[in-house]
# Entry
Amino acid sequence: MNIKKIGLLILSVLILSVNSLRADEGMWMLPLIQKLNSKEMSEIGFKLSARDIYDINKSSLKDAILQFGGGCTAEIISKDGLILTNHHCGYGAIQKLSAVDHDYLQTGFWAKNREEELPAKGLTVTFLDRFEDVTKEVTEAMAAATDSKAKEEVLKTISDQRSANAVGESKYLKGRLMYASKYAGSSNGWKKWIGMNETFEKLKVYERRAAEEKAFSEWVTADPSRVEKFGNALGNVKSAIEDRAKLQFTLRYYMEALGSIELTSAAMRLSPKPGDENNEGRGGRSNYSANPSDFYKDYNVATDKKVAKAMIAFFKEKVPATDLPDFYETIE
# Structure
């Protein structure tokens, strides 16, 4: 499980415990809590030790944090397995359990006992088993690989080894249910990006990074040996960013515009790939290639056509003509 995701959840626990006393911006990295934050936490009244929160391969609070559905973070809060997560993380499962006559997205649902619980088929949660340093193993295998294809196979093999461990009203309501989860996912991303931009401005991230670069440059120029070693560092970073900016610009528009056309994106996911017959999807969910009905259950041709026309025109408007896919010549 991604340690960053674990860190965010643990951080929320810490904040809930101490935010009445003080505010502290930034994220505390779990492996560094003992070294950097333990004394401060104790001084403001936090009772748990650093090892109670995070002990890399021993029982600690980190073990209550899990991966929900292949992408979200959640926490287990009872011995019986009660799990909490963000609403949007379970949105797709709620949508699949809903129908026009029992729209849980609108009315909500509460099971008063075990018998009333509704199983969310295909939804899984993943617990962290252990951390294992594979640096030496990967380095040696990569050094022995003779070409890029062999190197890719090395990484795949090591990864696989680790993972093994009324009619009109009714039509409207049906359509809304079909696209509810997709809309919520898009809306969630939109809100996240707005929040990120607002946070960057609020915390003056640009100004702080500029000040850090200035301080770094002054530190380098103060010593000739540093100039020799680090004199081109910032310039190299800037060049690397600028070199890939155009590609990233086009790629982002491709993902957000052409990638929003459901039929074409589904075709890529439905196409069998080497090893698909032995692999599950993210978070233990089935690949579309194994169960295409998951796609068609919530697909509407007319809606997708409207989206396709709009997104194809939008992509052409935003992306340089030299970067347009060949099919634009056909549809001109």
Summary: The mean pLDDT is 79. The chain has 15 helices and four strands.
